[in-house]
Design a protein that fits this description.
7-stranded mixed sheet; 8 helices; alpha/beta; FAD/NAD(P)-binding domain; about 350 residues; 2 domains; 5-stranded parallel sheet; FAD/NAD-bd_sf
């Protein structure tokens, strides 16, 4: 760690879509702020994901406030196109960003907050945490007892089919990542998808266009009973596009109940069936990690309790980009803008 000490009014931790959207509104206020990110290049969190990844949201929903996505192509947006768009966004808006900087610890101080980073100490009055939803790969504890002859990998480390050894493949987890990966496994390798039913997004979202997403964002929010009910299912297993589900139903992928335990080192399903794959891909999501925050704040299932991104018991502390933070699109590229605008306005009002 360097000995340099920097001082800003506001620091945004994370240079992904949520952090960049936050930067847009802070710049509009002409606020003295800095965005920091541990990657060496904006967009790398997208570039590092599996090769064939495409966003499931319609193209019109894949842009941030203030700049059209010129990297859109026909069909669904690829992960590399999204990465290039984010990098272009940061450059064209001339956002102040410090790359290659990891935050080791966040401390509370008398005047605000102190970030202990690999680039030095950064003091600020407000801090916005925009570290996304993919912190630590979540893998069942019993995976350690999986038969040693079975090759296992989490989806965060999966790149493409050629990176896997030969043999039959079991994909555990039936949300979007699990289905996407299962669909690219050749039928000759008997791809099997094991998982509980996942929340299916309404079909009209993919037919009407921008207006339908506007309705969707305003109906499914934490402000009404319907939205809160949907949020419970969303946080448990994510959501899936009906178009993707249709592709799955017409594919050679074998669908099975979820894996609940091991039986002599092999996966046992909820119905008691034992399967014998050569490869297991864990598409079981992520768990939050805020252990680097060196003071107390309330959490629910590991996630901060922060209505609209505002932490009630810690003045000046904000979160953005969390799953269903305010509505069903809060963690998506096209959904972080409204949350960023709300937080920026709160910062402005509180000084």
């Amino acid at each position: 760690m360097k000995d340099e000490i920097m001082v800003y009014d506001t620091v945004v931790i994370g240079g992904g879509q949520a952090g960049l959207a936050m930067g847009y509104y802070l710049k509009e206020q002409q606020r003295d702020f800095l965005i920091i990110d541990e990657e060496e290049q904006i967009g790398n969190s997208w570039r590092k994901r599996w090769d064939s990844l495409k966003l499931f949201t319609p193209k019109i929903h894949n842009e941030l406030p203030g700049l059209l996505n010129e990297f859109e192509t026909s069909g669904r947006t690829s992960k590399n196109n999204m990465a290039d768009y984010l990098e272009s966004y940061a450059a064209k808006l001339k956002l102040p960003i410090l790359l290659g900087t990891r935050v080791w610890r966040l401390d509370k101080t008398r005047l605000g907050y102190a970030l202990i980073t690999t680039s030095g100490i950064i003091n600020c009055k407000h801090v916005v945490i925009a570290t996304g939803a993919s912190h630590i790969a979540k893998i069942p504890s019993f995976a350690e007892e999986l038969n040693k002859k079975i090759f296992q990998i989490h989806s965060s480390n999966y790149k493409n089919i050629t990176s896997l050894p030969d043999g039959e493949v079991l994909i555990v987890g039936s949300a979007t990542s699990g289905v996407e990966i299962a669909l690219e496994i050749p039928a000759s390798r008997k791809p099997t998808l094991a998982g509980a039913p996942t929340t299916v997004l309404p079909a009209f979202l993919f037919k009407i266009g921008r207006f339908s997403w506007l309705i969707f964002k305003n109906i499914f929010t934490i402000r009404n009973p319907l939205g809160r009910k949907v949020r419970v299912g969303y946080l448990k297993g994510g959501a899936i596009s009906p178009l993707l589900l249709g592709r799955l139903n017409q594919s050679a992928v074998i669908c099975k109940p979820r894996v609940v335990r091991l039986n002599n080192g092999f996966p046992e399903l909820e119905n008691g069936e034992v399967v014998y794959p050569d490869i297991v891909i864990w598409c079981t999501g992520y768990q939050p990690d805020f252990s680097w925050i060196n003071f107390y704040f309330k959490k629910e299932n590991g996630w901060p309790i922060a209505p609209r991104g505002i932490v009630p018991d810690q003045k000046g502390l904000y979160f953005i980009g969390m799953p269903f933070q305010y509505n069903s699109t809060s963690s998506l590229v096209g959904g972080v803008g409204p949350d960023a605008a709300y937080i920026a306005e709160h910062i402005k009002k509180t000084g």
